[in-house]
Amino acid sequence: MSRRFLILALLTGSAVLADSMAACAQDPPPSPAIGDSPVPGAAWVIFGVDTVAVEVAATAQQRSRGLSNREAVPAGTGMLFVFERTEERTFWMRDTLVDLDIAFLDEGYQVLEILRMEAETLDLHDSSVPVFMALEVPGGWFAEHGVGVGSVATIVFGPTP
Fold it and tell me: How far is CA 153 from CA 40, 96, 107, in A?
């Protein structure tokens, strides 16, 4: 094999590899596969290509405990508070060790309001309108992922425990 041919082959292969890597880097992460589902007591809250794996707080005891006393809430995780009826809601950060954002959602999973909540404060964070659900995520997550008022989520619930 000639040296010129070998160099041309290497350069062509490198270009193809670089093009393939660039294409992969631009592709959004895959959505959960059809047939997959969250574990019992959990859900996936999906905004476009961004998925938050959440614990579901469906009982008064779970909602009262929330994300308190956790040293970290990893990116891409959070808690979904599900209520029996739509009404104005109040949250606070007592014993919550990390800053959180909270989105208040209606029955159609549309974001009605987003608030920033500072760790370890006793400030009250009230929804300004009646809401059906609240989604807590690490502070700044909504802004980083382009989720705002009017965004609509898809929610996939795992089996009831």
Answer: 20, 25, 11
HSE-CB for 9 with a 13 A CA cutoff: 6
Strands across the sheet with 111-117, in order? 111-117, 100-105, 131-138, 77-87, 50-57, 42-47, 154-157
**Residues 16-51 pLDDT 10s:** 333 333 333 333 334 444 448 899 999 999 999 999
Do 33 and 149 contact (CB within 8 A), yes or no? no
pTM above 0.90, yes or no: no
What value, to the nearest 5°, has the Cα angle with vertex 49 and ends 48 and 52? 90
Residue 15 DSSP SS3: helix
pLDDT at 46: 98
Q: Look at residue 102 in the predicted model and tell me its pLDDT.
A: 98
The dihedral built from the CA positions of residue 69, 158, 82 and 138, taken in this order, carries a sign that is positive
